[in-house]
Design goal:
This protein is 41% helix and 24% strand. By secondary structure, it is of the alpha+beta class.
């Protein structure tokens, strides 16, 4: 695990990147990286190839060719940057807002992982042990999120 700085704040640890199905809200893939790895690098492991649409934040805006190569039939719905030359493009900002409503499904998974299962901070030293724990917690989160469909 490594440290990184965002603004004036230093962080140490790891990041968990997950791929979530927009219909069911369940995680289908996960990658754990050190804190200093950029968000765009684990993208190939998050795509399974059968996606119809790919939603992501602006960190994935420059990854259009990679998305087309890993998921050929998927449409790119990543958020684009709205500020150019100091001016804000209101049309692009509105499109990003609509895309973010779908992207919020990912945050529901993280809420269950952090709040219900207490995965807000890492417990072990080293990326491998924490990765194993995070994958187990994601599996439990999927069961929790699908509990009503499983009971039916």
């Amino acid at each position: 695990m490594h440290q990184t700085r965002k603004g004036q704040q230093w962080y140490f640890g790891m990041k968990m990147h997950i791929g979530v199905d927009s219909r069911t809200g369940l995680a289908h893939s996960a990658v754990v990286t050190a804190a200093n790895v950029h968000d765009k690098h684990p993208l190939p492991e998050l795509l399974h190839g059968n996606e119809q649409r790919v939603y992501g934040d602006s960190a994935y805006a420059s990854q259009r060719a990679l998305i087309e190569s890993k998921a050929p039939q998927a449409k790119d719905f990543t958020n684009q940057r709205v500020r150019r030359d100091g001016e804000i493009d209101e049309v692009e900002r509105s499109k990003n807002h609509n895309k973010s409503k779908v992207r919020a499904r990912v945050e529901h998974v993280f809420a269950v992982v952090k709040r219900l299962w207490g995965f807000a901070k890492v417990r072990y030293r080293g990326l491998a042990k924490n990765a194993t724990r995070s994958f187990v917690v994601l599996g439990l989160a999927n069961i929790y999120l699908a509990r009503q469909r499983l009971a039916a």
